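Researcher: Quick one. two chains, 381 residues in total.
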Amino acid sequence: MLSSAIIVFREVLEAALIVSILLAATCGLPRRTFWIGAGLLAGLAGACVVALFASSITSAFEGTGQELMNATILLVAVVMLAWHNIWMSHHARELVAHMKNVSARITDGSLPLYFLAVAAGMAVLREGSEVVLFMYSVTASGSSANSMMTGSIIGVISGILVGRLIYSGLLRIPTGRLFQFTGWMILLLASGLAASAAGYLMQADVLPYQAPLWDSGYLLSEKSIFGQLLHILIGYQERPTAIHLTFYVVTLCSILTGMCWVSRRAEHRLHASEV
Amino acid sequence: MKELLIAALFVTSTTVMAAETRFDISIKDHMFSPAEITIPANQRVKLIVSNEDATPEEFEGEDFTLEKVIPGNSKASIMVGPFEPGRYEFVGEFHEDTAKGVLIVK
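Model:
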C-alpha cells in the first residue's frame, strides 16, 4: 500500500505543484479559475485517452512515440509558461493595483487566458496518463489490488494536499512581491521542464546521446521526496548532460529577455502617456 | 566480380549487424528475465523489452537516466549506453518489489 501511495504521490506532485504555482501567479485575474479548471479537466480526459492508446503511442515512430509525445507535451508547457511570464511582466502592476484597490481595472482582463488552460492541461496530461496506467495495472493484478488501490488514492490526495499547502503558502507573500516571486518560480520551473524534454529527445535518439557531466545521485537522489521537489521546482537532475544544461540555460535566458523587453516597453508607454 | 560483390554484401551486412547490438528481455509475472544481462561497454545497445503480462510496466533506470512505459502484452525498444564498465540497475517502477534487473557492462 505504501509503495503504491509513493509512486502515485510522485506523479501527482509535479502536476499539483505546477497548477498551484499557476493559481498563485494569477491571483486576482478575472476568470483564471475557469481557464485553469478547464485545462485541468481537459488534461485529465486527455490522460485517460493517452493511457487507453498507450500501446499504439509506444510503437509509433519506430518505437519512439512515447518519448516524442512526452517531449512535445513538456515543450508546449514551457512555451505556455514563458508566455505567462512575459504577459505578466506587462500586466503585473495593474493586477497589484487591482488587488489593493477594487476600483482599479485590469485593461486586458477579458482577454482569453487560454495559455493558462494549456499549461495546466499539459501538466496533468503527462503525469496523469502514468497514474491512470499504474492504477489500471493495480486493479487488473488481482490479489493485493485493494490495498494498492487505497495506496494510490492516498497518493493522489496527498499530492493535491501538498499543492494546496504550497498555494496557501504563496498567498502569504505580500501582494506587491507575490508576482515577482511566482515569476521567478515559473521561470526556473519552465527551464527545468525544457531540460526534461531534452532528456526525452535524447532517449528517442533525436538528439545524440551524451555521457552525464556528473552524477550527484549519492548526494541527493532524484527519487527522494526532496530531490523530486527540487527536480520540479528548479529542474534538479542527478545526471545532467551538456544538452540538458544547454536547454535549461537557453530557456531561462530567452524567457528573461522576453520579460525584460516587454516590461521596459510597458514602462515607456506609461511615461509617454504621462507626458 | 560476382564473388567480390557477394563478399562486399557480406561485409556491409555484418557491419550493419554489428552497429546495432540487440538484447531481449521479457517481463512475466512482474519479473525480468533474464534479470542480468551482460552488454558491451562503450557502445549504444538496443534492448527489446517484451512485456508478457497483461498489465503495463514502467522500465526505469536506477543508475542511468531512462523512463519508459511498456503497455501490457507489447514490446518496446530501448536504446541504452554507451556505458563505462560496471553494474547498472534498473527496475519496473509499477512493481518495484519484484521487477528488478541489472545491466552488467563489460
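The mean pLDDT of chain A is 88.
Researcher: Thanks, that's what I needed.
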